[in-house]
From TrEMBL:
It holds the Pfam family Response_reg. It comes from the Bacteria. Keywords: Phosphoprotein. GO terms for biological process: phosphorelay signal transduction system. This is Response regulator. It comes from Noviherbaspirillum pedocola. The keyword Phosphoprotein applies. SMART domains: REC. Signal peptide: none annotated. The modification 4-aspartylphosphate is found at D56.
């Protein structure tokens, strides 16, 4: 059932975590958990099951790209889709994200339609049911 999909939102800014979480809920992802950086996210990922991670790129401690690389090197986490969120739209960053195994890439600021489109594509590619918009 789609309501069982768990999404981990990772961002060092509490306001951005709340915005992304609210957008996810508005497009049908009702089971959203938040983490304040990559290190905290890894604790969550190693303790509980998640269907997708939506992570900011630039964070202190462990960046989103480092979190992604760590996940891809971990046999238990490597299959979890990761959508990277960043203010950087450079070709180098997009290429780096793709080469590191990102499932998708989204540039701030974005709206719910953009997030819904990216999440739907990622979920379908990973054989998961796309939730209905609330």
């Amino acid at each position: 059932m789609s309501t069982e999909l768990r999404v981990l939102v990772v961002d060092d800014m509490a306001s951005m975590r709340r915005v992304v979480s609210a957008l996810l809920v508005s497009i049908g992802y009702s089971n959203v958990v938040e983490a304040d950086n990559g290190n905290t996210a890894l604790v969550h990922l190693r303790r509980d099951r998640y269907d997708c991670v939506v992570s900011d790129w630039n964070m202190p401690g462990m960046t989103g790209i480092d979190l992604l690389r760590t996940m891809r090197d971990d046999p238990k986490l490597k299959e979890i889709p990761v959508l990277l969120v960043t203010a950087e739209a450079s070709r180098e960053n997009v290429l780096c994200a793709a080469q590191s195994g990102a499932s998708g890439y989204i540039v701030k600021p974005f709206n719910s339609a953009t997030l819904e489109s990216k999440m739907s594509a990622i979920m379908r590619r990973h054989g998961k049911e796309v939730p209905k918009r609330n």
